Amino acid sequence: MQQYDVLIVGGGHSGAQAAIALRQAKFEGSIAIISDELEYPYERPPLSKDYFAGDKVFERILLRPPAFWSERSIDVNLGRRAEAVDPAAHIVTISDGEALEYQNLIWATGGSPRRLLCEGAQLPGVHVVRNKSDVDGMISELDDVATVAIIGGGYIGLEAAAVLRKMGKQVVILETMDRVLARVAGEELSRFFEAEHRAHGVDVRLGVTVASLSGDHHVDGVLLDDGEHIAAQMVIVGIGIIPAVAPLLNAGAAGGAGVDVDEFCRTSLADVYAIGDCAAHANSFADGAVMRVESVQNANDMANAVAKSIVSELTPYHSVPWFWSNQYDLRLQTVGLSVGYDSYVVRGDPKDRSFSIIYKKNGGIIALDCVNMTKDYVQGKALVSGRMRFTPEQLADTSVTLKELVAGPSSV
Length: 412
What we know:
The chain is of the alpha/beta class. The chain contains eleven helices and 26 strands. The protein has helices spanning 13-24, 50-53, 66-71, 132-141, 155-166, 187-199, 246-250, 296-311, 374-385, 392-396, 402-407, and strands at residues 2-9, 31-34, 74-77, 82-86, 91-94, 99-107, 111-113, 126-128, 147-151, 170-175, 203-206, 210-214, 221-224, 229-231, 234-237, 241-243, 255-256, 258-260, 272-274, 279-283, 289-291, 322-327, 330-336, 343-349, 354-361, 364-371. Strands 1, 2, 3, 4, 5, 6 and 19 form a seven-stranded mixed sheet that branches. A five-stranded parallel sheet has the order 8-15-9-10-11, with helices on one face. A five-stranded antiparallel sheet has the order 22-23-26-25-24.
């Protein structure tokens, strides 16, 4: 039986970074990555943006060249899936039946796209966006597509819509809630992006429910519950992910919508860590609320913390969350978590397409959404990490930089 000092399940951002960080920390033990994909680890965010648009070839989004892994004695097992975990014996069983023994296990599987359950959901032409093969499948069909229906008004749906409009496709966004980005941003930002997409010709439908997808041998439209039929030759579903944690939960790990981890990213199973999208943790930037944070930042920083814990001493995960999204010529950069905000301040004018929204809770700053305002984004991290307090007038005054605010004596 093959034995590894560190066995990493998952070849995405978090799994790859864990292996990289271990070697950077001079870890000399054996390391293996088990990935159910056929490609070496690559960046995920460009899938719905640069890669989909054809602006970047796949080689440019690889996290490291293929030779990197063998040069650092990291065994990368592609096209293999972990099916079961025996925590007492410290063994992971792979889809081909092989059993691998571990000293430390890092679970970094992310999740699988949530799919529609309605009639027609399995028709050809219905796509999700999670990995390279998903996007390759979409690209291969585009020549025969005039109209695309996107179900879900989150980042994935909006980014895909922007790319498709640049390609000249007709796009309809179908969102069940009363605004886009409802789960991650305030109403001001939602309305701004709705207006931007409509200005670019996207048909944004809010508060609608999909009843079924139509088509005989290929999808040809979406039927709403009010009886309206929207013709479309491609449907993209972007309604979140389901954490890929079943083997851990079946092995007795605590969790539900993800696997629970402590401040050191340890699961309730001995010598088993979980990181990235699948790990539910008490986030200090959300007042300790237990949540999964789906971002590259979270994946990388959790991986770095675990690597330090394995190599030297237990290291808690404590990092300010950040995110970004590119749509048309707009760059949205977010720092912090706006969940539970009770007031906000708009800094700059949305009509100029360059502004920031600063979210507050109980008087302290908890997050910023910055649109084409990179300086605010960079300088705003200090406001969030210190949960600093300023008046709305101070925050709205663009003649004073956020850095100057932090350095000044005028906090309240």
